[in-house]
Amino acid sequence: MRRSLLVCALALSTLFALSFARADIQLNALFSDDMILQRDKPVPVWGVSAPREKVSVSIGTQVQSTQADDNGDWKIILNPMPTATALVLRATGEKNGVALKNVAVGDVYLCSGQSNMEWPVEKSNNAEAEIKAAIFPNIRFFTVPKKITTTPQSGFASPPNGRLARRKALRGFRRSVIISGASCIRN
Questions:
Q1: Are residues 90 and 58 in contact, defined by beta-carbon separation less than 8 angstroms?
Q2: Do the bridges between strand 84-92 and strand 54-59 make them parallel or antiparallel, or are there none, so unpaired?
Q3: What pLDDT score was predicted for residue 5?
Q4: Do residues 175 and 129 make contact, with C-beta atoms less than 8 angstroms apart?
Q5: Which of 28, 115, 165, 174 is the most exposed, having the fewest neighbouring CB atoms within 10 Å of its CB?
Q6: Using one digit for the tens of pLDDT, what is the confidence trace for 47-79?
Q7: Cα 98 from Cα 51, distance rounded (Å)
Q8: Is 170 helix (H, G, I), strand (E, B) or coil?
């Protein structure tokens, strides 16, 4: 009886340990639903999986594959793509996959600065009129969480915030970014 319990306990311990050893494929936190990728340029996509796991990334008709290194890190370079919207980016491993919806390919602008870059649309003069007039279905806004550090980081201190420039979300968007983005669209 004791021997049966010992064998059963060892078997359960092994199954428990194997369930934690399984590493689901993950994209870096930079990648999310509603994101935009730069058009007409090679696009790196990276993440983690189980060590030595085969990984494929697809978007539109393009599929690229690689194998994770001994630490489970992997990186794929997508070929340049033309402008497109409503795409699905899939990262697939041997055990699972991740699908990101409503991915666009277009022009990516990085906006950075001081307090002027912090000012939200909702605190601007004529905020309600600006929000009512705003029709920018392809502007995407991505906020990187603030963190002071003296060493390079491979991730974020907290999850990044990505949103579409839809009227109900526009209030919290940075006004200078919306003005710049709208100007680019009009020109």
A1: yes
A2: antiparallel
A3: 38
A4: no
A5: 115
A6: 999 999 999 999 999 999 999 999 999 999 999
A7: 17
A8: helix
